[in-house]
Amino acid sequence: MFGVIIGRYSETPIALLCLLVATGAFVFISMELAIYVLLICLPFSFRYIIPNLLEVQTPTEPLLGMLTAVYLIIKIVNYVLGKQSENSKFPLRLPICLFIIVTFLSAVNTPDLFGTIKGAIRATTYVMFSLVVYDVIQHRQMLKRIYIASFPSAAIAVVWTIIVLFYNIDQWQWTSSFRSSPFTNYSVYGSFTAIFFLICLSRLFFDNSQYDRVLWTGWLICFGLGLIMCFSRGVWLSVIIAIGFMILQLGKGVTHKKLMFVGAVGLILLVCLSLPGVYSAVIERVSTTVDVGYASNRARLMRWGQAATMFLENPILGKGYGAFAMLYEEDVSLVGSYIAQFQLGAHSEYLQVMAEMGIIGLVIWIWLILAFLRYGFRSLTTIKDGFFCSIVIGLMAAEISLLVHFIVNNLLNGDAIGVPFWGIYGLLPAIVKIAERSEENLPHETHNKV
Description:
Blueprint: H1 2-8, H2 14-29, H3 31-41, E1 46-50, E2 54-58, H4 60-81, H5 93-105, H6 113-136, H7 140-167, H8 186-206, H9 213-228, H10 233-249, H11 255-273, H12 278-287, H13 295-313, H14 323-327, H15 332-335, H16 349-380, H17 386-405, H18 415-449
Antiparallel strand pairs: 1-2
Helix pairs in contact: 1-2, 2-3, 2-4, 3-4, 3-7, 4-6, 5-6, 5-16, 6-18, 7-8, 7-9, 8-9, 8-10, 8-17, 10-17, 13-16, 16-17, 16-18, 17-18
């Protein structure tokens, strides 16, 4: 039915309105189920454009928007009725709320008020997903459902992309090799794959309880192969640092695991680099990292310079959210005329926040990051269950890998990275709460068994 509506009314808002109405009704029935559907659809969303009006990643962003809208409505109703649950007190809510406020305040300097407000609403929808996840995910069974919803879907997308990349192996190092795959470029693909790889690795490293290790090893191999096929220097660096963080968490008494892991990684790299043409391509890619004459490096330096200029012009609140894309004139000779029309960013999430939201926005953004890491490290000192500990470390490693990659890229504007990033931001505190409740109930459960 929706296919007929979209086909018939694709150049009017009718198709989108019908989609939003149906999505809203679905979310009202079950917010939890909507989150699972969102995770299933995430790697396969497509850009739907109403000419001269707007574009939306379908079905990800309609689901995300309705989740946020329903969440706010429920919160308002509960507040009016005096029904405030203890679980709704999100421990990281202050930096989140301030970040949302500054996103809108930055509009005072924008060259396009409507564009900035529209972009700020869209960005807020993504940020609010952390609150939704924290409020909805309340027990261990829900974590299992998140796993069932996200891992098979992600694996299908990654395997699909691996096949496409093998087919286009002669263009492996170029974005054009991703045509006909679920991902737009190697940065998005690599960061998305790294999230699942690191969670799998953490589970196998830190969880000594009884579970299907063969299945989790299979997931690890699948996403590991996906990472091997990625040609992004930023992804390589971010994964290496995230794995280093995980190795540090092993602590004393597990030297054998560290040696086994380092040996396995070394063997895999040796095998991969021995493949025909791979070694030379990788060495060439690494050698261009500090080559100022390299086209992508020149483009990145130009964007960083523009971000610095924008910041100096309006250092307090920046030029307004989304202003970088409005003001920056891409050098077509470096990146091509088509790419220049879309996805303009500062090539650094931190510099983009600084340019668009000023020093206030940058300080709150860094506070938001440090608050997450501090909460995670504190929770590792109290959680005793190996399952919860492994998931917390995996989520922290995944978030660290994204944060490192954000130094040289800006990926939060896309749903494939924005949804996992903000979802993890809310999921980690939710898991800590679940773990605390489980440990509180453990003595009582043990007494009953005896």
